[in-house]
Design goal:
By secondary structure, the chain is of the alpha/beta class. Helices cover 46% and strands 18% of the residues. It has a single domain (6-190, 201-264), classed as Alpha-Beta Complex (2-enoyl-CoA Hydratase, Chain A, domain 1).
Length: 265
Amino acid sequence: MSEPVVLVAKHEGIATVTLNRPEKLNALNRDLRSSFCRVMQALRDDPEAGVVIITGAGRAFCAGLDLKELGAETTRESGTLVRDGTSVSFITVIEEMHVPVIAAINGFTVTGGFELALACDMIVAAEDAQFADTHARVGVMPGGGMTARLPRAVGIRKAKELSLTGNYLSAHDAERMGLVNRVVPRGTALKVATEIATQILSANQGVVRQLKKLYDLTTRATLGDAIKIEQEFFRAYNSSANLKDLESQRAAVMERGRSQTSAKR
């Protein structure tokens, strides 16, 4: 019997959620997205989960949406579950968490995976991490908050450069831009994220939750409107986009990323 596509481990107030499709670079197929949503919804109301860490199995954090299964039905709907009549996505379940969420990043963090990381409260990146927004290279519009969150993290001009070129960003460059909290040795991102989580748990938890909520309200006052605008573009573009060549374009994007990484060494 195969392992679940999302693994959950809880220890002393820390819930570690692992995207578990390593052979596919943890690409977000429908099964992974829906499983992730269910796991995060359960943790949101779990009194034993004071901090949540999201990481990826194998050599990538997440390579984005699984383009092999994308078609009219899966591409044009960004939500994967419906709760109380509202569409729930792998991004909104992170936004709805009452406790801090830390991304522990290893390897490729691309497009939808990049959006997932941006939705987290903190990012710890291993030195081999690579970030990229490849929407323009693959030929799809973002629908997970990229154009709303990336400029808030690195500034509008740098965000436009990253999105319009599709270039890969190293962990150290990401740290210099303020995109990630820390860069750590390869293989230690989860360990360091756990150390940060432990420090958070040693503080007053009532204040921690209120501070998280307050930061979200004060720094993202217009985030909802920005995401609504992006969703309108997403639906309008993808309703007429040619989806047949997306997988071959993804392969070219990944190869470009590998060549850029090799050139920087």
